[in-house]
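Sample entry (56 residues):
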Amino acid sequence: MNIFEFRNLLKSEDKKEKRKSFLRSLIKSVDTGANGTQDYIVKKGSGKNKIATTRQ
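Predicted structure, serialized as tokens:
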């Protein structure tokens, strides 16, 4: 491997790393349970305003 191939290899690796870090910065974190996606609240009945469970 000559010096030109080596430099091109280093440049391509540097571009890959920059692209990966850029794509990572675009990813947004998600709030678990936001907007009622995790638990359901009973709206009517004797258990009003309580979190519903699957246990019977």
